[in-house]
Amino acid sequence: MHPKLLAFLAIGCLLLALVDAGRPKITYAPRKPFKPMKPSPPRKKTCDVKANGYGRDDSQNILSALKKCNNGGTVVFKPGTVYTIGKALDMTFLKSVDIDIQGTIKFTDDIVYWEGNSFKYAFQNQSSFFQIGGKDVNVYGGGTLDGQGQPWWQALQTNASIVRPILFAVIGLEGGTIADINLVNSPNWFNIIANSSDVTYDGLHMTAVSTNSSIFPSNTDGWDTLRSTNIVIQNSHINNGDDCVAFKPNSTDILVQNLYCNGSHGISVGSLGQYLGEVDIVENVEVYNIHMSNASDGARIKVWPGSPPGAAFGTGGGSGYVKNIVYNGMHIDNDQWAIELTQCYGVSNASICDQYPSNMTISEIQFTNFDGVTSKTHEPDVATVVCSSPDVCFDIHVSNFSVVSPEGTNDAVCTNVDNSTLGLNCTSG
Ligand SMILES: *[C@@H]1O[C@H](CO)[C@@H](O)[C@H](O)[C@H]1NC(C)=O
Ligand SMILES: *[C@@H]1O[C@H](CO)[C@@H](O)[C@H](O)[C@H]1NC(C)=O
Ligand SMILES: *[C@@H]1O[C@H](CO)[C@@H](O)[C@H](O)[C@H]1NC(C)=O
Ligand SMILES: *[C@@H]1O[C@H](CO)[C@@H](O)[C@H](O)[C@H]1NC(C)=O
Ligand SMILES: *[C@@H]1O[C@H](CO)[C@@H](O)[C@H](O)[C@H]1NC(C)=O
Ligand SMILES: *[C@@H]1O[C@H](CO)[C@@H](O)[C@H](O)[C@H]1NC(C)=O
Ligand SMILES: *[C@@H]1O[C@H](CO)[C@@H](O)[C@H](O)[C@H]1NC(C)=O
Ligand SMILES: *[C@@H]1O[C@H](CO)[C@@H](O)[C@H](O)[C@H]1NC(C)=O
Ligand SMILES: *[C@@H]1O[C@H](CO)[C@@H](O)[C@H](O)[C@H]1NC(C)=O
Ligand SMILES: *[C@@H]1O[C@H](CO)[C@@H](O)[C@H](O)[C@H]1NC(C)=O
Ligand SMILES: *[C@@H]1O[C@H](CO)[C@@H](O)[C@H](O)[C@H]1NC(C)=O
Ligand SMILES: *[C@@H]1O[C@H](CO)[C@@H](O)[C@H](O)[C@H]1NC(C)=O
């Protein structure tokens, strides 16, 4: 071969390697997952997803590529290509497969179709466009999933019963990574992770922005975990209109680190204990190094009291516990509360909460290394810890907390909690 041609080919291969970086290597720093993540062997073949173009549905093309490359291959969405998903896509049969999304995937905004055909979940009446599950699945590639949320948020204005799909649903996945992907304008939550274990999210960029200032991108939570264990969420940027991350019932061994959240409701445990007869557990959660801007809360824990159902003042009464939760390193930037812990969630009348203490215990909670300035909203207060009774709410500690309000105060509201060891400047109950 001519040396010039050889050099040309070599440069070509190098460029290809740069464009298609392959599966990213994920590192866990500074904190490590609760349990080591399982290794994922390299894949041996690739299958390109065909694009029909012109907004025509590609879900069958995606399924065919996945079936061809399942058990050891990589399915590729080519760069510079727009794919359309207009049919609910069940991908819970996956095993040892990579999904390399370099192009853009758009979901149709056919509200009538999705209302009838999205995957439905009993939990809070949620639904999704597609679901990924199985064993050992890696999704990456630098591409974009676009949920086209605007018409959904708009429809919600006139009909509160509209069931808006979650953009990215991981259901029943054992081992996997979702890395280096952009998620835009989800109709509802961006991510749900349910019935899963040993899954890592790394380097995601999510943004939900309404083009109409009178329409809010409602319920666009970054992540919600449910019935899942050993999950890592890290190194991501989220611009949204609800919880940045929320730990729902039976979330255990969860590490969240190095996030930039803007416009959210904070990093939240709950709400839990809403339903009488149900047992909710959130245990072993570490939240580390978070920049929280323009949010209602930084660190948040919300639990319902023991009020029996049917009563005029709402619901609650569920049991279970919230235990060993660490928020370490949070930079507060124009957030309403730096810390908001309540065991009286959903009840406006404090005497109701005194009368019916929560059946969910909150204990072993640590908030440490918080700095920054809140918004003026609750000035002079910057934090609130409202328990229903010290018997079911104890071992709560705040340390190295230098957050102040814009006028420089650091007062806190502390109710039914031992404030002598709490570490806040409790000036009111
Ligand atoms: C779910 O939908 C059912 C039936 O529409 C309704 O009764 C129930 O209140 C809903 N639950 C939640 C949590 O929204
Ligand atoms: C609101 O949306 C629900 C769910 O799609 C539907 O059943 C109901 O008919 C809609 N109501 C109106 C007034 O459009
Ligand atoms: C998860 O598993 C539970 C219990 O097996 C099941 O009831 C539920 O439908 C599954 N899916 C989700 C999304 O929770
Ligand atoms: C913005 O939303 C409001 C409320 O739904 C609606 O009345 C208005 O027409 C919308 N504006 C545009 C430009 O779509
Ligand atoms: C944060 O959100 C606000 C309001 O949506 C927006 O103006 C601002 O650009 C966002 N900041 C970043 C860094 O994304
Ligand atoms: C959570 O786990 C407890 C204890 O195993 C169980 O009783 C409860 O049903 C689970 N809750 C959910 C929502 O899966
Ligand atoms: C907070 O929101 C305002 C607009 O409401 C925006 O100008 C600012 O950039 C946001 N702060 C950050 C750090 O993104
Ligand atoms: C809360 O727990 C106590 C003791 O276990 C029980 O007597 C009470 O009925 C429970 N309350 C509710 C609302 O479930
Ligand atoms: C709070 O609830 C109690 C009943 O438990 C009632 O007597 C009282 O009037 C209520 N207070 C307010 C302000 O609603
Ligand atoms: C206190 O927290 C700040 C960040 O908020 C951190 O820079 C500093 O090192 C911490 N101090 C100690 C003694 O840990
Ligand atoms: C508590 O807040 C008050 C009012 O802002 C302030 O005067 C006092 O120094 C604070 N105490 C501590 C221990 O920070
Ligand atoms: C604890 O609360 C009481 C009553 O609200 C208050 O007088 C006291 O200063 C508080 N102690 C601390 C350490 O905040």
Helix/strand-derived class? mainly beta
Total number of helices? 5
Q: What distance lies between the first and last C-alpha atoms, to the nearest angstrom?
A: 83 Å
CATH H-level homologous superfamily name = Single-stranded right-handed beta-helix, Pectin lyase-like
- Main sheet attributes: strand count, strand direction, barrel closure: 26 strands, parallel
Write out the distinct hetero groups bound to the structure.
Answer: 2-acetamido-2-deoxy-beta-D-glucopyranose
The total of beta strands comes to 28
What's the overall average pLDDT, rounded?
94
Q: What portion of the residues fall into strands of 2 or more residues?
A: over 45%
Low-confidence stretches: 12-19
Shape: globular
Provide the CATH topology: Pectate Lyase C-like
CATH architecture name = 3 Solenoid
Radius of gyration: 23 Å
User: How many independent structural domains?
Assistant: 1
Short descriptors:
26-stranded parallel beta sheet, mainly beta, polygalacturonase activity, globular, binds 2-acetamido-2-deoxy-beta-D-glucopyranose
Topology summary:
Layout: H1 3-19, E1 45-48, H2 59-69, E2 73-77, E3 82-85, E4 89-101, E5 104-107, H3 111-117, E6 119-121, E7 126-128, E8 130-140, E9 144-146, H4 150-158, E10 168-179, E11 182-184, E12 191-194, E13 197-202, E14 205-207, E15 223-226, E16 228-239, E17 245-247, E18 251-262, E19 267-272, E20 279-293, E21 297-303, E22 319-335, E23 337-342, H5 350-355, E24 359-374, E25 381-386, E26 393-401, E27 411-415, E28 425-428
Task: Characterize this entry briefly.
Belongs to the glycosyl hydrolase 28 family. The protein has 429 residues and is mainly beta.
